[in-house]
Amino acid sequence: MSSHGQKSRQRSQLPRNPKGYDFVCIPFTKTVTPVSHVRKIGASGLAFSGRMDIEIKTLSPLHISDGTLRLSEELGFKKGFTVRSILCPEDPIIPGTTLKGAARTYYEAITKSCVSQFLRRMKAKYAENERGASTLPQELVRQIVAAGGEQRGVAEVAILPECFERIERCSPVRKRSSRLCPACLLFGTNGFAGRVTFSDARLISSPHKGGFLYVVPRGAPRLHRIGSASVAPGTRNTKLVVEKLKGRKVYNAKYEPNTPSQEAELWDYVPAGALFSARILFHDVSMAEMGGLFGCLGIDRKMAVTIGGGKSSGLGKISISSKEILAFPSGLMQRTSFEQRKPIDDRLGFIKQCKAAFIKSPFAYPKSYEVLKRICAV
Ligand SMILES: [Zn+2]
Fold first, then answer.
1. 193 lies in a domain?
2. In this predicted structure, what is the pLDDT of residue 238?
3. Ligand 1 centre distance from Cα of residue 90 (Å)
4. How far is the CA of 247 from the centre of ligand 1 (A)?
5. Cα–Cα distance between 317 and 315 in angstroms, integer?
6. Ligand 1 center to residue 55 CA distance, Å?
7. What parts of the chain have a pLDDT lower than 50?
8. pLDDT at position 288, please?
9. pLDDT number for residue 234
10. Can you list the alpha helix ranges (DSSP code H) found in 85-174?
11. Does residue 178 sit within a domain?
12. Cα(101)–Cα(99) distance, rounded to whole angstroms?
């Protein structure tokens, strides 16, 4: 790593993190609330409905893929390359679904919620005494061989189901008494519509028209790295089980430009320093929930969340600031005419108040919120 990396580490007081991700703790259990509660708080006047306009600034190159490869000349670059295209290269956007997905992931991380997305098993190639050919560390390979496994092969790595016992994904909602975790209650799940909606983010300005980056694609982090792995006793097929998870993975890789190489792909991108604008709509959302949303997205603070492709290479770091908030007690919303609806004067005060309500709420997980703020600080 360069001396530049050294400097930034000293500044942030974070340990060296060559993997590009870190962990926030997982709560012991999730809190669950009947879905009928949402109507109740809406009717009680303790919940808010309205909208928030936000500005998104890219802190590192951003790549939201449209899933296609294009010829470089098609994208206005020098002829002769194949480039991984971004969504709407002429007028780039960040889809609302991408923003909502990111918000949900970060919200889950700071609340006592279920785990909606967690890779639970994967295959890992291994070989004894062949460093390059093995995706497992030699220490684990030796264990596999000692347990009667082949010297090289493919091992199944799986997380012990017990790790998820108390934070298992919420079941689809069938009746009003069905209970959901805080994240499912706010963002929705099967059979229950969420209460926050994100618009697509439109590009307002960009320092220049990207170009392309050399990116060495990296897969998901190996499962054996996210907990303590050992060979499952008594299994005929080579199997590793992972227990005592270190936590939920949060990306915080530092972006360092790559030079051309055999493995590198060319990716189109939106450069760092670009500005996007988007709108978040919410209805019947409590102050505490709103505080959780502000907090997890690092709105108006020096915090970066990551979206899009190449997260482990430091791509897709964004910071979000609020521009205007309109929030009405839900009951009042219907009785207020459009002309009467005015933005909140003391926006930052309102955000602070909401965050305080969040920290005090029973569904918050302040311990991991603190860790998240530290991991994602910029
Ligand atoms: Zn849930």
1. yes
2. 67
3. 38
4. 17
5. 6
6. 28
7. 1-16
8. 96
9. 63
10. 96-110, 138-146
11. yes
12. 5
Helix (H) or strand (E) holding 353: helix 347-360
Phi, psi of 274 (to 5 degrees): -80, 150
Is 159 part of any domain? no
Q: Which domain holds residue 357?
A: 18-116+169-216+258-375
Residue 134, pLDDT score: 81
Q: Which token pair is 273?
A: 């320093």
- In the block, tokens 């005592």 appear at 244
How many A from CA of 59 to the centre of ligand 1? Answer: 31
User: What's the confidence (pLDDT) of residue 3?
Assistant: 42
Q: How many CA atoms lie within 13 A of 347 on its CB side?
A: 15
How far is the C-alpha of 135 from the C-alpha of 306, rounded, in Å? 26
Three-state DSSP state, 296? helix
How much is the pLDDT for 12?
41
Say if 76 falls within a structural domain.
Answer: yes
Is pTM beyond 0.85 here? yes
The DSSP secondary-structure symbol of 95 reads -
Q: Which of 162, 195, 168, 191 is nearest to 181 (CA)?
A: 168
Domains contained in the chain, number:
1
Question: What are phi and psi for residue 375, nearest 5 degrees?
Answer: -65, -40
Cα of 141 vs centre of ligand 1, distance in Å, is: 36
Give which of 95, 96, 59, 25 is closest to 298, Cα–Cα. Answer: 59
How many CA atoms lie within 13 Å of 238's alpha carbon, on the beta-carbon side? 23
Q: What is the pLDDT of residues 238-278, one digit of tens each?
A: 678 888 888 888 898 899 888 888 888 999 999 999 999 99
The string of pLDDT tens digits covering residues 95-118 is: 999 999 999 999 999 999 998 877
Q: Are 108 and 169 within 8 A, CB to CB? A: no
What is the arrangement of strands in the sheet containing 152-159, beginning at the earlier edge strand? 121-127, 152-159, 239-243, 228-231
For 166-202, the three-class secondary structure string (H helix, E strand, C coil) is: HHCCCCCCCCCCCEECHHHHHHEECCEECCEEECCEE
Q: How far apart are CA 249 and CA 220, in angstroms?
A: 10
- Interval between CA 314 and ligand 1 midpoint (Å): 29
Question: Ligand 1: distance of its center to the CA of 74 in Å?
Answer: 43
